[in-house]
Amino acid sequence: MKRFISYVAVFVIGFVVCAGVLFRWYGKPAGNNGPVFVPTVSRAGIGLDKPVSSPVRKAAAVVSNYVVNIDTVGKPVHQPGGFGDFPDFFGFPFSAPEEVIPKGQASGVIYTSDGYIVTNNHVVENAARLTVTLHNGRKYSAKLIGRDPKTDLAVVKIDAKNLPYARFAKSNTLQVGDWVIAVGNALGLGPTVTVGVVSAKRTVDIDGKKLEGVIQTDAAINRGNSGGALADINGNLVGINTAILSTSPGGGNIGIGFAIPSNNVSRIADQLQKHGAVIHPWLGVGYGPFNSDMRKNLERRGVTKLPKQDGAIVAKVYEGSPAAEAGLQPGDIILKVNGKPVSVSENPGRGKTSIADAVSKAKVGDRLVMEVWQASDNQIVQVAPRLKQMPADFTNQQ
Predict the structure, then answer these.
(1) CA dist., res. 184 & res. 191, Å (int)
(2) Which residue among 143, 144, 182, 264 is least crowded, i.e. fewest CB within 10 A of its CB?
(3) Helices vs. strands in the chain: H and E counts, helices first
(4) CATH number of the domain encompassing residue 216
(5) Where is pLDDT greater, at 131 or 26?
């Protein structure tokens, strides 16, 4: 009996000790007493003995300083109301046409300390008045310096000095999977920060406009983010947010947004700042990939003596273009440009080039020396079209 009592005593003492330890470390059971809070947020691999500032927080603080809100007021639009041009009938007046003044909210990025701001062309193209609000709440009237519909970029200017401004990172070094943050005036709510990764780098066609080599991200981008910053984890600018894909009529975010790469932004903004416009070199062709699949497809159709290397197959040649004057025709295959093999990949790789890249890096009047397989006689020839200035209504071709 004494032995049994000893066992019970040991059990009770052990239970009390264990309960005390659990209470000491974890507190009272949650039950219906509300949420249980741990002392601090756990961060794997980071010591908890002192407060930690996340890289995203630091980057967001940097980017938010150089991102601005842009409020636009458009030119008056007359909307008909009923039968305004007719007299009253039976004593019932018809409403007269009314004047509507469109308004919008978007974003922009300061890129010089004296107030030059880059944003999207579609933000400013129909604006009669522009107002810029800085991160500190100060407001300025802005002047349109220039815009470029082809790249959907524009530059505006405010009369201010010693402003914080964006440092440009080289977007060609950005890789799929890299962390990025988007900052802009989302849905007109004011400065908003979202985080994601680079999902892809691709060419997209949005509303009939082709955007070359844009950065795709799952960082949430919504209406109002247009013209805002896409930045790396150090707060350096890697792109200007320009568009999203959406499955809803209102254009809600589904995790597919696009930004114009910073390499293109810096080049176009510089030209707009200096000249008020951008002169685009023009070749005048539409093309697609010539690869193993296309080769097999053409061979099944009876085409012979096709080149073994990949390239770009010409789908269309525009009348009066440099390509037409050089004798290029649909079905021809462009194999090399200026000695470099042609790729239709967004990232051609070392030693290769793409048609779009070769044209964009050239100037009006330059010749592109091209090695072309001609469909008319199944042989490889060399042509050298001299680039012209792109016509104003050709915003979707090379």
Answers:
(1) 5
(2) 143
(3) 7, 22
(4) 2.40.10.10
(5) 131
